[in-house]
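Appendix B. One record, verbatim.
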Amino acid sequence: MKFQPGYTPAIERRKQFVLDTESAVAHTPNIIMRLRLILINLIGYVCYLSSATALTYKLHAHEKACFFAYAQEKDLKLAFYFAVQSGGSFDVDFSVVGPNEKTIMEGTKERQGDFVFTAKEPGEYRFCFNNEMSTFAEKMVDFEIAVENESKDAQLPSKQGTSPEQTSALEESILKISRDLSTINRNQKYFRTRENRNMSTVKSTESRIFNFSVMESLLMISMAGLQVFIVRFFFQGARKGYV
């Protein structure tokens, strides 16, 4: 085999490697952009499937507060979570009423609850908290109302150049991440509720100890003053009798 002057197989392979690397680098931005578009579409799809409202409400004594969620069609999943963070015995009465004024669920003196039910008909659903049983205690209630759309007919938006297998795999990954995040969120709510209740108990105990200490100090000062008065009275009486 004859080679031209200055030509070696190693140099040729190095040139080919450089050309392949430059070609791969040139196509990398297009691949990254395509993956970003797919990820944005998947996130939008997951956000379309569910909508939620998380609130913290201060429920005064003898107060009944209601919140509303609208189901646009039947067979939607409605999730309802609540937990009493502070106040009284950490309990509250609750009720869920459907569009036809039919009570779906209710409870009395419940500390927390986590329920999921199917909307039998479209319309407005009412979620109420009742603190009429309390004479003066205020309740801090943390709750969340979510409307989930689990329609099987919905399709992910696809981009040119992606196969159905890739889209299905990405969809499963996103839904798995969504379920894991929901589990983490529920665990965070549980630990936050425990923390708030324990903090409320600690504050109540601290307040009682402080009040008891003040009363004890006042009682000791009163007893000391009374003793001084009695001793002085005895000595004054003895001096008068001596004179």
